[in-house]
Write a structure and sequence with these properties.
The complex is a heterodimer. In chain A, helix 1 packs across helix 8. In chain A, helix 1 links the parallel strand 1 and strand 2. Chain A has ten helices and eight strands. By secondary structure, chain B is α/β, with parallel strands linked by helices. Chain B has one domain: 3-Layer(aba) Sandwich (Rossmann fold), CATH 3.40.50. Chain B has ten helices and seven strands. Chain B has a seven-stranded parallel sheet, sandwiched between helices. Classes of the chains: A alpha/beta, B alpha/beta. Chains A and B meet through helix 10 of A and helix 1, helix 2 and helix 8 of B.
Chain lengths: 296, 267
Amino acid sequence: MEKTEKQKTAVVTGATSGIGLAIASELAAKGINVIGIGRDSELCKKVKNNIESLYGDVRIEYLTADLSKLSHIRQLSSNIKNMANSEDDKSIDILINNAATVSSWFVGTEDGLELQFAVNHLAPFLLTHELLPLLAACSQGRVITVSSSSHYRTRIRWNDILMRKNYNCLKAYKQSKLANVLFTAELNRRSESNMNLIALAADPGLVNTNIGLKGTSGIVRWVWKKRSKKGVNPKKAAQSIVYLALTPDINRFNEIYWKDCKPKRPGRYAQKEDNASKLWKISEKMCGIKSADYGL
Amino acid sequence: MKSFVCITGATGGLGKAFAVECASRGWNLFLTDLSGKNLENLSRGLASTYDIEALYYPCDLANDGSQKDFFAYIQKEKLEFDILINVAGLDFEGFFTERTPQQIRTITRVNIEGNLEMTYAILKARDKEKPFRIINVSSLAAFYPMPIKAMYSASKRFLLNFSMALREELRPAGVTVTALCPAGMPTTEGCRQSIESQGFAGRLTTKNVGYVASKTIDHALKGHAVYIPGLLNRMLRFVGFMFPSGLLARAICERWKSTRKRKEAIL
């Protein structure tokens, strides 16, 4: 039986600002039980109070984790599991991998990875794996990864995927967003036989957030300041993602990439199965996991 | 018998870049730094990503007891090495008189003594079947007297001279010593701020750590004595030869003072 919205639970990463914040508030306002993830515990508290005062009686909790660190993601997953297990139906219906970052400089993470690749691609990859038992426990788990139209016209640098030798902020960002689409496609393929799961990639379009101002400087910062003014309000971008999260009938094979509540063709590179499976294998190694252990 | 690449200061920006580069070449790693937790995360990640063996043992080079434990561990495990990369080093930027005695001791302990003792110990545990490579991380600051980084630039000068001399001593034994002399690199938030405060010039002399690590290994394998990343930085070194050092020190001091002012204005 299809659950009503009041019985659903959603996890939203990067939920303290920008699109993530708008998604979390929107879902909470619809009565869904929301678990928001943020990096800064003070900000998490503030945002939670804000949403509660705006919408009144909503169910929203925040957990703190730095998604650039694999150890934090593992810790976060066990915290989410504890939270879900204390509820009645012990499952998670919606996972929205929204958190993303931009960095002008090459920044190495504690696991020996590159910051943008770690946060934008590996964090969704690992978090989805860790939460699979909870997603599989409901009638139709849904994994939405926020990608972007910057995934068009780029490729994966297989020889130097972390761009250690030739780092470029925009190229690294584009690659990580392409990785989001490849991940989504491969997740659908792998989960087809034994799980009732839908994975979707969402394109929010140009949105007026400060993603391009946090880890950047110089030209990148200046361009984003000018460009983001033309973007839509995060609220509007969030609406199309909330639509994806709650619309029951979506064919996960023909329609994996969505913009403004309509399916769209992803880039040609993103449609190739061998790219997706190659990236998947590399990501497994980087996270130190085997998907087979998770039933994928 | 397996041999390892020993990297000190392995969880810092440049050390990490070296660790990733060596791992991507399929070499087994033995990493050390202050924090065991950081070392554990890094070596676990590298071992699974690149299918290598990555061992670690935390060590505080400024602390005699900790260093003894470290060397005892190497002996106990009978580890053998074919490359040593001395990255560990630190700097407290600012006027010498603003430093505490503790800070002064730490700089000399880590940048100079720690490096010498490590080189001595690891050379004893070298894999005799193979050529042995040492990379010492010096700095572009080694070529000039640098006010406001006085102790740091002098300690890096020490490493540069030491490397060049040791290289000749060990040449018959099949050991090469390479001194890496980079300009600023965007490894920590502080470094990035410092580079940004220098404006365009700061950006021009700045090189990506991954690139620097990769090129340095290439140069070390060829047995080169000194490697300075970046054409502009190589030219800057010659400026150091062309002018009297007193004059250079004066000019550098003026420049640092003005960037410091700018940085303080930003903060």
